[in-house]
Amino acid sequence: MRYNRLLGPVLFGAIAVTGAFEGMRQRSYQDPGGVWTICHGETAGVTQNQSYTDEQCAMLLASSLSYHNEPLESLNYQLPPNVHIAALDFSYNLGTNALRRSTLYKKLQAHDIDGACREFNRWVYVAGKDCRKDGSNCSGIVTRREIETQLCTGQLSVKEALVQLGHLKSDSEIIHVIRH
């Protein structure tokens, strides 16, 4: 049996969360580590002065999420959806090789989900810089790891993560708009 396929709610959750974290730029740019990037954080084959349409970016994201999900499909059990989404976002952000070498992945392989969820916040460095420090220009990675941790532990739903990231209005904001 094949586990952790990228279908239904997990696919939609991964697209929403990863898309929100990555943002979307149709023109290539250099990320904080100096890597040429486009769309939702795609780096493979990206060079200066490239541009893509919304549709091309959407196709790249779907394809890339499928690729970055491969290590999770090799686990011999089904991850809870929240854990799957958090681990997939981690894989998308850092790459499948980093995931496969990580203690987080080793804990997932050992069915130690609680231990795996505690590993996300260890990954707060970009190009050798500690992103927890003021002036690092990479503090977003700290927020990303905190949200991945909270998703993984079930303290945060996908909807709540999107509200925190400013991609959805909270229920109280919607009620305020309706009443006024």
UniProtKB/TrEMBL annotation:
Domain of life: Bacteria
This enzyme's EC code(s): 3.2.1.17
Enzymatic class: hydrolase
Matching SUPFAM superfamilies: Lysozyme-like (SSF53955)
Molecular function as annotated in GO: lysozyme activity
Keywords from the UniProt entry: Antimicrobial, Bacteriolytic enzyme, Glycosidase, Hydrolase
GO BP terms in the entry: cell wall macromolecule catabolic process; defense response to bacterium; killing of cells of another organism; peptidoglycan catabolic process
Catalytic function, reaction form: Hydrolysis of (1->4)-beta-linkages between N-acetylmuramic acid and N-acetyl-D-glucosamine residues in a peptidoglycan and between N-acetyl-D-glucosamine residues in chitodextrins
Assigned protein family: Belongs to the glycosyl hydrolase 24 family.
Protein name listed in UniProt: Lysozyme
Organism: Vibrio ruber (strain DSM 16370 / JCM 11486 / BCRC 17186 / CECT 7878 / LMG 23124 / VR1)
Organism lineage: Bacteria, Pseudomonadati, Pseudomonadota, Gammaproteobacteria, Vibrionales
